[in-house]
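B., you asked whether I could sanity-check this one before it goes into the benchmark set. Here's the sequence:
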Amino acid sequence: MDLHWLKPLLGRPAPFTTVYLDATPSQLSAEAEAADRWKAVRRALERDGAPAAVLDQIGERLQVPDGRRTPHGRVLVADAYGLVVDRLLSTPPAQSQGMFGPAPALLQAIHAADETVDLLVVAVDRNGADLQRMQAGERDAKPTTEVVQGGHDEVHKTRGGGLDRRSQTRAEDSWQRNAEAVASALDHRVADDPPDLVVLTGDVRAVALVRDAVGQPVRDLMVEVPGGGRGEGVHEEAFHTKKVEAVDAYRARRRAATLDRFRQALGQGNAAVTALDSVVEVLRRGQVAELVLGDGAAALTQRTLWVGPDPLQLATSAGDLAAIGVTSGEARSMPCDVALLRAALGQDAGVTFAGEGEAELVEGVGALLRWSDGSTPSGGLLSQSADTARLRTLV
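And here's what the prediction gave me:
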């Protein structure tokens, strides 16, 4: 999944303060309010030496309501000077906690990458539509709304016969033309800047007309979610719940499709790799389209890699890093998970998490490749069968 929101962390000065907080409203939680949870986390961070000014800034940000009425979490990351990342998590962390150190603690944060969905909500009636663009999972992004008016305002039928039949025909013709105007606007918006998902809602008849009028690129991204609309009387909370369900279903489809491509490529042995050494090599070469992390990836937080100033300068040892031209003064060790993510960000790769049994991963890590050549590490698991130590770590 897209990691663009973590790019502001690249090149930022250490030390880093990382906070994972259960931001669930107190009326839905058996625990203390979010403010009290933060106080406990802050005390621990103060003991670890986190700067007071940075903690004050995080505390001020947490005082601003995020508008969520359902259980959720927050992840915030600050560098030496202040807050850099503030992100909503649809699932609260198992424990509110803070980490202070030379690198941000990102393994939990990258789970938030899978939360990000670029969403276009289209609320239609028989006059036109409101097109609202938003980022599901974003903390600060404000939705933008565009109004599309069809231009044909004779949209009400009358009862009776004779001349009234012509009025009914004109009304139906207006519905159709207005729907075509909305569909045309949708086609253009999706062609110019495709979202991940188009949610269509509103008047039942208008929904059907717009759905039938849009082009195939829009139809491929579209799901219908009842309960929304343009006018008064819409039950916003009920619609929001249905919208969240649609977004969650999309995330599951997106993740399943990526893992299916990874499994197929790994089986063919030419467009995917697994095991840490192989993944480091293809990251260094800029070949990675998607970094795949499995259940065993948690162990990566206990390991280190050697990195240089550039995100693609990484190796499993200081000697290997020197071999690619990084001087001893430029080299430094970094937690393995942070180094892998840093390199993925540096080549605009995404990240996908594989649950137990969803992908065969050595050492909990793999990569789906953009390209491969004769010097690319072999991705097939059988090619690594001689390395029994690594095969024992298969998850």
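One thing to flag: The domain at 4-115 is CATH 3.30.960 (Translation, Eukaryotic Peptide Chain Release Factor Subunit 1; Chain A). Otherwise nothing jumped out at me.
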